[in-house]
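Record now logged for everyone:
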Amino acid sequence: MMRVMLRRLITAFALIIPLAPAAAAPPPATVVVAFDREAITPLVVEGLANKETGRALEANDPVRIASISKLIMALTALRLMDEGKVDLDRDVSDYLGWKLRSPYHPDSAVTLTHLLSHRAGLSDAAGYIIPLGDSLEAKLADPAAWRDTGPSGEAAFEYANLGSPIVATALEAVSGERYDRLVERLVFRPLGVKACLNWTLCDADMQARAVTLYRDTGEVARDAPEDLPPNCTIPVAEGAACDLDAYVPGTNASIFSPQGGVRIGMVDLATIGRGLLLMGENRFLSQQGMRLWFGEIAAAADRHTPGETAAGFCAYGLAAYLMVDEKPCLDDLFRDGSGRIGHGGEAYGLRSGLWLSFEQATSFAYFTTEVPPPAGGEDTGGADPREVELMVRALALTQQAPE
């Protein structure tokens, strides 16, 4: 009887004492930074850099920015061209030391421009991660690495990550420098930013501020503490040692993930963007380099096809694409009528972007996490609804900011 009365008493207390509300889950890690020629301004900084530690995200915490890394690779190539060490329109075989040809078009030379513009006829069907100890040349000998969509340069646009290891390896071969060090020398250091590829040159402070990527399911995707130094941070073939000291530049720069492996904070990414807005004054690129970059984007816009527009890559040239609100390149991210040049990123639950306005509109660097994978698979183009909502929010914040 006593136990029955006790249970009733406990039940009565539960009815009259309100339960403490459950703590709201933190929002997905998200940073948006606005910038123009004059200033860089963080607009949105929310969520946790790591859920296990509960560390709050900060505006310049380094994150894997995915395919924006390709734009940084193109800038590296253009800077190396300005040094007189590489010709973007030369047969890339001359730099690699072995013949690179599509099995469907064996007489058609492949150039860095073709590769950076995704018009070399490559495909990711064979995979694009070549670990340390494996052969880049052997990967490109696989017929599955190619599509019969026309000779290199005339091939239909097809976004292929596999082109990035080829470009990065060729840049290593002509410079004699490891790709991560080459990007540091030609892009990061001149523009005054701290960044790295696959954590190889990031210092202890940056490693401590790493943003862990989570999928929309909550599963850890990349850059948890166990993915950071002193553990191995590059892909390594089975049986091979994780030894960068023994790596020979010009053999397989895929190990640095040039297609997506840059780690950088959004304030620093915006600093790169601002450097590009000012490149006519700061001489980051030569007149020839600027003409080539803008010229390839303009040429891509001229030769677009409806299929490319539907894929979200209306005008893509030299690892940058144009987003506008005019037909046929209807933009699905910004709705303010301003054209922007840049690159987006999508991988491991992350969406990111670096979008430059050379007009009077605001430019943005951003990332957000825990985004569901696109319905059509990775790298199919187009913005996620969460990205669109985030940019609407960011534009509203810039309009509210005092001039």
